[in-house]
Design goal:
The longest helix has 25 residues, at 133-157. With 282 residues, the protein is mostly helical. It has 15 helices and three strands. The radius of gyration is 23 Å and the shape is elongated. It has helices at 2-20, 22-32, 45-55, 57-62, 69-88, 91-110, 112-117, 119-123, 133-157, 185-201, 206-214, 216-238, 240-243, 246-269, 276-281; strands at residues 163-165, 168-171, 174-177. It folds into two domains: 2-130, no CATH class; 134-281, no CATH class.
Length: 282
């Protein structure tokens, strides 16, 4: 009965706080569904978090509840940050603060044991908050140039003479432009999210989990370089019409599938993955 009462109080407070964060949620929604969005997966993140919570339902039933006043401090600080960011329209920091406020609420109403069980599902919500467009733009340019440089180097080694001119790879009878969509940032963000899930589910040490998560970065970059090389070769051999037609879109799906397989292989190498419910119950 006591736990049900706390759940009611928590739900009521969470609902009121969510209303305060409505402008931030609207901003996130617009970014998720914007054209050429880098966060199209954002709407799925809360559903994945709910799935992780459902997996831990038995542990939550058995956990004791002893609210901590420190949770209220976290809520107060988070709300202060939100109010400042809302006035300045810095919505991505406001979005981050919502996750910390939610954790503070759990700690305040249910205590340390429950908050520890729910720590990952709550902080996983950070993955749904889009980064600012300025940072996205800077990362896009740097990744685009890095991918073009790596692709040019490999093309020269496999018998396709190439030179890089900014984001353009020039070959004797053709050239390709490594544009913004080919920077690989979208794949990198998606793969980092998958890497975080794999790391959570991995039955191994925290160090190896960290390495598994970080492996998402070189895997995503390498996969994008492979795609650019494939497009350059097809463009040189069969022409722009073939390279930029069906093959352009198909190669994107194909390379992401290879990246996923690579990440899964790393996960198996560091100890395999298991159900988070089983792993955390140990």
């Amino acid at each position: 009965m006591g736990k049900s009462k706390e759940i009611f109080k928590f739900t009521s407070c969470a609902g009121l706080l969510s209303a305060a964060y409505l402008p931030t949620f609207i901003w996130m929604w617009d970014r998720w569904f914007a054209k050429e969005s880098y966060y199209g997966h954002g709407i799925l993140i809360p559903l994945v978090s709910l799935y992780f919570i459902w997996q831990r339902k038995d542990a939550l039933r058995q956990a004791g509840t002893s609210g901590r006043i420190s949770g209220l401090i976290i809520v107060a600080v988070g709300l202060l940050i939100h109010l400042i960011c809302a006035m300045l329209k810095i919505y991505f920091i406001s979005g981050f603060s919502f996750v910390f406020v939610l954790y503070g609420l759990v700690l305040f109403f249910f205590g340390k044991e429950v908050s520890k069980i729910l720590a990952f599902p709550i902080f996983f919500l950070l993955a749904m908050v889009p980064l600012p467009l300025v940072l996205i733009g800077n990362l896009t340019v740097k990744l685009k140039l890095l991918a073009a440089q790596c692709a040019t180097f490999i093309l020269n080694r496999i018998g396709f003479p190439s030179i890089r001119d900014g984001g353009i790879i020039r070959m004797p009878s053709s050239y390709i432009i490594v544009g913004t969509p080919c920077s690989g940032l979208r794949s990198l963000i998606s793969l980092l999210t998958l890497g975080l899930i794999f790391a959570y589910a991995a039955k191994t040490s925290y160090l190896k989990r960290g390495l598994l998560f970080l492996s998402s970065v070189p895997i995503a970059i390498a996969s994008n370089v492979v795609r650019i090389i494939m497009l350059a070769v097809v463009n040189d051999l069969y022409g722009e019409k073939v390279a930029l037609g069906f093959f352009h879109d198909f190669s994107g799906f194909l390379v992401f599938a290879f990246a996923f397989i690579g990440l899964f292989a790393v996960a198996q190498g560091v100890g395999g993955v298991t159900s988070p419910q089983v792993e955390n119950a140990e």
